[in-house]
Amino acid sequence: MSESKVQFQHPYAVLWTICFIALLSVAGVSLPYPVLAPIFAASELNAFNNWLGLDPTLLLGIALAANPAGILLGSAVLGALSDQYGRKQVLALALIVAVLGYLLSALAISHQQYLWFVLARFLTGLCEGSVSICRAVAADLHPQIDRNKAIAWMNSALYAAWLVGPLLGGMTMHLGAHVPFALAAIAVLPCLLLVQVYLPNAKPEKPKLALWQNISQHNSLRLLRQPELKWVIWAQFIYTLGLNAFYEFYPLWLVEAEQFSGYEIGLITAALCLVMTFVSAVLMAKLGSRVSPLPAAVVAALCFSGCLALLPWLDGIPAWIWLVCCGLPIPMVSAWFQVYCTATFAHFGNGRVMGLLTVLMCAGNLVIALVGAVIALAGAQYTLWLGAACAALAAWILHKQSQQPLSVEHT
User: What is the pLDDT of residue 2?
Assistant: First the structure.
């Protein structure tokens, strides 16, 4: 079921609302990075950083992994449930639980309850899977707001979130490690209010199945069985292997090849995020609809592959500038591919489709983290080259599909 026929009384208010929600959701992923490292790296052991006598580094890894694990599961379920029960209802419930998750995280840190903290981060991650609902709403806004523009703005909020999260954590942790999580809980509250005010009370047909049956039979993972989506699945998964090879291993390459400090990596990461945010929010929002999305995604993916392949051959200032330039085609691939998918496969439900793309992104992140780390033992540049090869292969898959007879758009 799709809600794309819903008329929004205040479409731009809805768009800004879901962009803000998406920003906070992804910021919640990166929020703990500057907060937790000092806790687990501290020389003084306590009940939190030495839970059950385990190594603090291992505990840090588990704590950081709990949130993405929740997002993986939440993305597979929440978007699909919003197709069945309504965007507003499911999104509002997810935000309420997210508030509870952030508050529980703050309490767990302040009381040095490690296990409760991990569970709270997993719970919060489940709710941050609501990004798939936000993306579905962005697609639903068409034709009141051009689909390309809405998705481009949504993606720009996600890129900006990778700056907001660490900034919020780093600038407030001196008040106490629990404070950033408490502030995140407070920040979600106006989102909940905006959802109640601006999202329409669209009531889909009453689901014929019980909640658990809907979760089991209408989650995004079941789309993996759809023959017409096989090429989408492979293209998305392989491209995200390449994209995350870049995201996860360019810092290591900067250390190995350019002797960058953590502060310098932070600066270049900020520049990269700003470039991606600008391209998505300005260039793609204004110009993205002027071309056919699938062929344009092919060209952008090839550009990214070429940029990434060339990066390890450079050094000094040209390498730093080129690394930031690698961010130029990334928002283009994302926006054009999502536009194509929501226009072509809306009959599966935009919530399910966007949930599937998010799940594949998380899966690609996990796989390349493990495989890329092994390859990087020989040098981080080899992982970057692997990423370039993956992006090129994904572009080839997209190109082959673009040569097929045009599918009927389900708008």
Answer: 44
Is residue 86 within 8 A of residue 203, CB to CB? The reply is yes
The CATH superfamily assigned to 8-218 is: MFS general substrate transporter like domains (1.20.1250.20)
Q: 359-368 burial, b for 16+ CB within 10 Å, e for fewer?
A: bbbbebbeeb
Measured between alpha carbons, how far is 291 from 297 in angstroms, rounded to an integer? 10
- The answer to whether 38 touches 328, Cβ cutoff 8 Å, is no
pLDDT of residue 3: 46
The pLDDT value given to residue 214: 60
Residues 324, 34: Cα–Cα separation, whole Å: 22
The span from the CA of 170 to the CA of 186, in Å, is 17
| Inter-residue contact 97 to 127 (CB < 8 Å) | yes
For the record, the structure tokens of 147 come out as 């689909």
* Distance (Å, whole) CA 80 – CA 86: 10
* Predicted pLDDT of residue 206: 59
CA distance 5 to 367: 37
Burial letters 283-300, b for 16+ CB under 10 A, else e: ebbeebbeeebbebbbbb
What CATH architecture applies to the domain 221-411?
Up-down Bundle (1.20)
For the chain (411 residues), the mean pLDDT of every run of 10, in chain order, is 61 86 78 71 74 78 77 80 80 89 91 91 83 82 83 85 76 79 86 83 61 61 82 92 88 86 76 90 81 91 97 94 94 91 81 81 80 85 95 95 59 37
C-alpha distances (whole Å) from 369 to each of 273, 381, 389 are: 20, 14, 16
pTM: 0.77
For 409, the 3-state DSSP assignment is coil
What pLDDT score was predicted for residue 133?
Answer: 83
Do residues 239 and 397 touch, judged by C-beta distance below 8 A? no
Residue span(s) of the chain under CATH 1.20.1250.20 come to: 8-218, 221-411
| CB contact at 8 A, 398 and 237 | no
